[in-house]
Task: inverse folding
């Protein structure tokens, strides 16, 4: 049997049935339906906005985790990709007059991918702290360019406000803001999130994903197995950048205003924070981390002006007690533990 | 080693053919220190060559030059008919020049099965495949299963490697190297850290697999007993130069070797 081709072809009907009944897939379907219906059922604009926000950052954290969780590189420059995604959308709309959402999203991903390739090419030779600092410095360079309005595209620290994109020729941007978000844009983000999950789930279980794990686990061995490790680190940076760029592009429309702050290192720090909070050793951890981060931020902001302190404290406790498993990995371990005890008794 | 002795006719036959690896006047300097000082040797794909020498003789440096971990100061390395002196490490591996390490280099957070399967997929240069699932890739799975069987690792297949006993880790390291289908394997102390009772078992496993697959072996070893039992030929290095290069009995009886290596303690 030839298995060089993707293996969906020879999947048996029974396997397909098993796949459909798979707990995780079923859970995902239920969650998707619930999220899709939420705005229409509750008509709660505040919650819808918060969920849209969470989903954007969930995509960013998932993309970031390719580099940290799978390839084992700690990047402190992912704001560059997020910000590039945002600026691409706003500049393409303002300067080039492109209004179609699909085109804008694709452009943003490509632009972020190019930035990822450049930053990656300059940094993948380094390791650990040097990699972190180099990515940080290169991203900061973009921040300075945007803040100083070099090239006259970004309007400096004032930033640029953006209008709402259309979709497949439908002038949906003419709808009122809350209808645009609750009836349309929220669902675009939702679909993008689930598409990202599906694609990454597949890619990270492919020979490519295994190759990234080989590099994370033991570079010497990976190279001595004939893997050009620098090239694969670069691939992982580009893939990661494209997904984070998509997140930035989606987010730009939600906030409606793009400033250099999104290119700043604190933004990179927040993405790292989310991944660590949810658990970098797990596939879904980054989503939990992004949700936790944003909900925590909302709650803390409402209660105290010292919200940074609250966030820091939570991350401190989570990392100290759960380490790379994060909240999600920790919860999984707890459930396994409880099941074991139940089986024992 | 009995298998080798019965094969002696083919050895002599092949000795006249092209060597799989040839180093010509290979030299490595670290600042003022000359670690390898003009070593010219030939290796064939049907022999097991032991490299001996006291600490600092340049054994590990020499193997690092062969694998590409270190760059040459001077000299040429010819592998399988091609000059590979300036070739990157991973490209040498892809041509069939594979080395293993003194300390097993394996992937701790992957299972034994994934460790071997990753090597199989890398050899087939399928690292680029994005949209297929490794746990459904029948071709690499079957090959991995055969390798696990060959090295008696089936019972450990689903274990994560970090908790494996040292001897098993060594064997896994070798199995991963075999998955690359090398033409020549360079082993840096294949039995270091392995209990003395296990040493022979490890060597048997390696040499049997090499004979079965027609793979040339070069191994560095401090244990003279192992060197004597498993080598077809011994190369003695001393201060970066070749002191002797002959069949085991001759090398072991050589006056120079006795003076510099055997008596000096290794």
Result:
């Amino acid at each position: 049997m030839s298995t060089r081709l993707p293996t969906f072809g020879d999947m048996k009907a029974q396997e397909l049935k098993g796949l459909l009944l798979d707990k995780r897939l079923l859970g995902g379907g239920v969650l998707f339906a619930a999220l899709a219906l939420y705005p229409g059922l509750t008509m709660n604009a505040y919650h819808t906005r918060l969920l849209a926000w969470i989903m954007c950052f969930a995509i960013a954290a998932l993309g970031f985790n390719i580099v940290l969780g799978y390839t084992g590189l700690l990047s402190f420059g992912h704001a560059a990709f997020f910000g590039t995604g945002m600026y691409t959308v706003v500049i393409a709309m303002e300067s080039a007059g492109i209004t179609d959402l699909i085109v804008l999203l694709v452009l943003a991903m490509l632009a972020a991918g190019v930035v990822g390739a450049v930053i990656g090419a300059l940094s993948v030779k380094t390791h650990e702290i040097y990699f972190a600092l180099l990515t940080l410095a290169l991203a900061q360079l973009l921040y300075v360019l945007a803040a100083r309005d070099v090239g006259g595209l970004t309007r400096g620290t004032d930033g640029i406000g953006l209008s709402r994109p259309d979709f497949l020729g439908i002038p949906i941007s003419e709808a009122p803001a809350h209808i645009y978000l609750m009836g349309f844009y929220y669902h675009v983000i939702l679909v993008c999130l689930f598409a990202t999950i599906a694609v990454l789930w597949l890619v990270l279980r492919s020979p490519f994903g295994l190759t990234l794990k080989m590099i994370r686990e033991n570079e010497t061995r990976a190279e001595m197995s004939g893997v050009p490790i620098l090239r694969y680190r670069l691939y992982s940076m580009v893939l990661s950048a494209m997904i984070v760029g998509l997140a930035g592009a989606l987010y730009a429309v939600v906030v409606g205003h793009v400033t250099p702050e999104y290119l700043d290192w604190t933004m990179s720090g927040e993405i790292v924070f989310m991944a660590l909070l949810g658990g970098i050793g797990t596939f879904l951890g980054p989503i939990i981390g992004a949700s936790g981060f944003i909900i925590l931020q909302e709650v803390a902001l409402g209660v105290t002006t010292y919200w940074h302190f609250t966030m820091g404290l939570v991350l401190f406790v989570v990392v100290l007690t759960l380490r790379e498993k994060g909240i999600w990995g920790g919860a999984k371990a707890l459930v396994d533990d409880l099941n074991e005890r139940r089986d024992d008794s | 080693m009995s298998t080798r002795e019965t094969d002696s006719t083919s050895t002599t036959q092949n000795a006249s053919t092209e060597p799989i690896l040839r180093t010509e006047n290979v030299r490595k300097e670290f600042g003022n220190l000359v670690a390898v000082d003009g070593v010219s040797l030939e290796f064939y794909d049907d022999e097991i060559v032991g490299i001996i020498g006291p600490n600092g003789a340049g054994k590990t440096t020499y193997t690092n030059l062969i694998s590409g971990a270190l760059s040459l100061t001077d000299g040429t390395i010819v592998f399988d008919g091609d000059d590979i002196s300036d070739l990157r490490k991973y490209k040498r591996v892809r041509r069939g020049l594979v080395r293993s390490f003194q300390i097993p280099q394996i992937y701790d957070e992957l299972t034994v099965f994934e460790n071997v399967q990753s090597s199989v997929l890398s050899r087939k240069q399928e690292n680029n495949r994005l949209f297929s699932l490794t746990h459904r890739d029948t071709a690499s799975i079957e090959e991995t299963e055969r390798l696990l069987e060959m090295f008696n690792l089936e019972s450990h297949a689903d274990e994560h490697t970090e908790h494996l006993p040292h001897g098993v880790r060594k064997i896994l390291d070798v199995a991963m190297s075999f998955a690359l289908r090398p033409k020549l394997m360079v082993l840096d102390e294949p039995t270091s850290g392995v209990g003395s009772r296990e040493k022979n078992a490890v060597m048997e496993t390696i040499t049997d697999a090499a004979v079965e697959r027609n793979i040339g072996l070069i191994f560095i070893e401090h244990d003279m007993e192992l060197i004597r039992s498993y080598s077809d030929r011994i190369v003695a290095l001393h201060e970066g130069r070749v002191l002797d290069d002959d069949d085991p009995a001759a090398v072991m009886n050589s006056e120079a070797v006795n003076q510099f290596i055997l008596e000096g303690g290794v």
In short: The interface with chain A takes residues 67, 88-91, 93-94, 98-99, 101, 105-110, 114, 117-119, 121-123, 125-140, 176-177, 180 of chain B (CB under 8 Å). Chain B has two domains: 1-96+184-197+212-266, 101-180. Strands of chain B lie at 21-30, 33-43, 48-52, 74-79, 82-83, 97-100, 184-188, 216-220, 233-238, 241-246.
